[in-house]
Design goal:
The complex is a heterodimer of chains A (406) and B (272).
Chain A: H1 2-11, E1 41-42, E2 48-49, E3 51-55, H2 82-94, E4 100-104, H3 111-128, E5 134-138, H4 145-154, E6 157-159, H5 167-173, H6 179-202, E7 214-220, H7 227-241, E8 245-250, H8 269-284, H9 289-292, H10 306-313, E9 320-321, H11 327-330, H12 338-347, H13 355-360, H14 365-368, E10 372-374, E11 377-378, H15 386-393
Parallel strand pairs in A: 3-4, 4-5, 5-6, 6-7, 7-8, 9-10
Antiparallel strand pairs in A: 1-2, 10-11
Helix pairs in contact in A: 2-3, 3-4, 4-6, 7-8
Chain B: E1 2-5, H1 9-21, E2 27-30, E3 42-44, H2 49-63, H3 65-76, H4 82-96, H5 110-128, E4 133-134, E5 139-143, H6 150-160, E6 165-170, E7 175-180, E8 195-199, H7 214-224, H8 233-239
Parallel strand pairs in B: 1-2, 1-3, 5-6
Antiparallel strand pairs in B: 4-5, 6-7, 7-8
The chains are: A alpha/beta (406), B alpha/beta (272).
């Protein structure tokens, strides 16, 4: 039990939680995977628990400054055996506690040694226990490509955490790591996924390689990097490696270090939230990073969301006629999401839409009304002025109060 | 005229049939909860599987498969007056055809889409929020969902736990799903079998809480995975409303109050 506590506590800063993106059938053992993903619980911090997230071991030879498991920290160390992890996963899975396993590890002896241990666990689970649930495996940078290849054939999703958005901050905070060292396995995974996909087009039963793709994670707030750097790196990663997700993790100070925020600093949760919003704009809303942040505005606004910020900077784009605008244009309107945009598109074929109907379609009308016209009628603030709109959207500032004399 | 039906899906579809081929219905109500009024006549409707099957097929062919699924989901919801919402929806649906799927904000369509969506959402939620306890011979899960979702979650677990023997018990509606995948344990791979919906009122006393320690391990995992400086109970309550928590292991008080600090004497690898 103590082991589980230690190795869970050590893994809690890994944010990847998705169990989606792959359909896997139960082929005579236990478990399957659904492409929509299932969350099984939510912990006290409101983050979802869908995978059993543990480290194989937290005994690390590296000394990354931001990490709770770094070598110079005096904390209890422990490691699981392959069978312990496999049993725990299976028993939790039978009881429907989890959707699968998230396996990560500290580097005990060498990357090869750790990666080999992880492959052994995956083999045990998939072959001896006939487990067909979801498995996310972390790649240890520097491990033998053969081992990564084996892991990819057993797991659903693979990931390498790049942790810092620039070479410079990585060198400062994780002196034993470098970006090329992290990029090599990512390239390998990208190529293998492509090759195996191509093969499956020809042979129906060809094995799948990391069918749920690969992802990565960046720490926000440990270094001085701006949102501009972070988002540019994110976009570059999506383009270069075809990643499914880039996760952001607000840095929770765990170590006393002159290069890091002080221990009492609160994690920048709002900034993390705004970064995720921007990430969604890029992945689903046809935005380019250059539109969200630019050298003049290198940081995202915390007061309003990035889409609203973009809309207020581009008054020339609005107002849009809801009954005529294209799908991509609708997506630009604050208050209209993917689902409501699609509903607008399909319903306006039957009859022109009025403002009342928009509310039942799921549009956040309070925000959207400043940017749209319905059948030519504009119901927003007049004249169209970014400053007035901004004031009407923000929660009212606390009013000044007369202090009592006593 | 008000039609009264027996609470089954077949009964409801039979009412729809009579609405078109006999007297038009003013409303459809469940027999148990109907309050007679002086102004409107009411008539009992016997479920007729043949008529029901014809309406079922008509919805599928003349409206759409999506509409049929929505009607069924809406039927399983616990929303009062769902029968009339379905009736109004179908009356419009048989006139409009498959276009009705896109008429989301129409006053006869929106209520149905809304309650069907509530049921869909709860079904998805309970795929994750269901907890089995190992009773030795079988797995047992209890739940008290807002809507009657048992028939909608059964297939998922029958595929996932194909080789297990399990019971999912809806304590609010006194129903249960039983599944037995272990009839011939030597034979692998386990084929997926049929599940059965039965009435189950009380939990037999022999259903003791699980003793093998995995519940305690799960509770421990649950507390350890959360980051204290990010604590956010409001966000958590959005995802797991308090009404669901009495059936979740991780929200029950731990029996022996295990904490890491109390067990610090356990043998650990320590680095000098």
């Amino acid at each position: 039990m103590a082991k589980l506590a230690i190795l869970t506590g050590a893994a809690r800063y890994d944010v990847a939680c998705a169990s989606s993106g792959v359909s896997r059938k139960n082929e005579g053992g236990i478990g399957n995977a659904k492409s929509f993903g299932i969350c099984h619980s939510w912990s006290d911090d409101g983050r979802c628990i869908s995978l059993l997230k543990v480290l194989v071991s937290n005994d690390c030879i590296y000394d990354c400054r931001y990490c709770v498991n770094r070598r110079s920290n005096n904390i209890p160390r422990a490691s699981f055996t392959a069978r312990e992890i496999a049993d725990l996963t299976l028993q939790f899975y039978r009881r429907n506690y989890i959707e699968g396993l998230f396996l990560s590890a500290a580097v005990e002896v060498s990357p090869h040694h750790t990666m080999e241990k992880m492959v052994r666990i995956l083999t045990l689970l998939r072959q001896e226990y006939e487990f067909h649930g979801y498995i996310h495996v972390k790649i240890i940078p520097g491990a033998d490509p053969v081992l990564i290849q084996q892991a990819g054939l057993l797991a659903d999703r693979m990931s390498v955490n790049i942790e810092q958005p620039s070479e410079q901050s990585l060198r400062l905070l994780a002196p034993q790591k470098s970006l090329p060292m992290l990029y090599t396995p990512m390239q390998q995974v990208r190529d293998q996924i492509l090759i195996h996909k191509e093969e499956r087009k020809r042979f129906r039963h060809a094995p799948r390689f990391a069918p749920a793709g690969q992802s990565t994670q960046m720490i926000v707030g440990a270094s001085q990097d701006s949102d501009l750097t972070i988002l540019h790196t994110t976009q570059a990663l999506y383009r270069a490696f075809g990643l499914k997700r880039v996760y952001f993790s607000a840095y929770v100070p765990v170590n006393q270090d002159s290069h890091l925020p002080a221990l009492a600093t609160a994690p920048p949760l709002l900034r993390e939230h705004r970064l995720y919003q921007s990430d969604w704009l890029v992945r689903y809303y046809h935005f380019q990073v250059e539109e969200i942040v630019d050298p003049v505005h290198p940081q995202l606004e915390t007061e309003i969301d990035p889409k609203m910020a973009w809309a207020l900077r581009h008054p020339e784009f609005f107002p849009l006629e809801i009954n005529r605008a294209a799908y991509e244009e609708l997506l630009r309107v604050p208050g209209i999401g993917l689902k409501s945009a699609w509903r607008i598109l399909t319903q306006r074929r039957l009859a022109a839409l009025s403002a009342d109907q928009l509310k039942t379609l799921g549009v956040a009308y309070k925000r959207a009304r400043h940017f749209i016209t319905c059948k030519g009628v504009y119901a927003g603030s007049r004249p169209f002025d970014p400053l007035t709109i901004r004031r009407s959207i923000l929660p009212p500032a606390p009013s000044a109060q007369q202090l009592t004399l006593f | 005229m008000d039609y009264l039906y027996d609470g089954s899906f077949d009964g409801l579809l039979t009412c729809i049939y009579y609405h078109y081929y006999q007297e038009a219905a003013d409303g459809i109500y469940a027999r148990e909860s109907y309050q007679p009024s002086l102004l409107v006549e009411s008539g009992l409707v016997c479920s007729n599987p043949d008529y029901a099957a014809r309406v079922y097929k008509a919805i599928e062919e003349k409206i759409s498969e999506a509409a049929l699924a929505r009607v069924y989901y809406a039927f399983l919801s616990s929303c009062p007056g769902k029968e009339n919402i379905i009736l109004n929806y179908l009356r419009l649906g048989f006139r409009m055809g498959s276009k009705i799927d896109f008429y989301h904000s129409h006053p006869q369509v929106h209520p149905l889409h809304k309650i069907a969506c509530q049921v869909t959402r709860e079904v998805h939620r309970f795929l994750g929020l269901l907890r089995f306890a190992d009773q030795g011979k079988f797995l047992y899960a209890s739940l008290a969902p807002d809507h009657d979702i048992l028939p909608l979650i059964a297939d998922h677990f029958a595929e996932r736990l194909a080789g297990e023997r399990w019971v999912i018990h809806d304590q609010k509606r006194n129903g249960a799903i039983v599944y037995d995948g272990q009839t011939s344990p030597e034979k692998k791979p386990y084929p997926q079998r049929r599940w059965y919906l039965i009435d189950l009122d009380t939990v037999p006393a022999s259903f003791l809480p699980e003793e093998d320690g995995y519940q305690e391990l799960w509770k421990l995992y649950f507390t350890e995975i959360s980051i204290n400086s990010r604590r956010n109970p409001r966000l958590q309550a959005q995802f797991i409303p308090h009404r669901y928590r009495q059936h979740l292991v991780e929200f029950q008080a731990s029996r022996n109050g295990f904490r890491l600090a109390e067990n610090a004497a356990l043998p650990l690898i320590r680095r000098e």
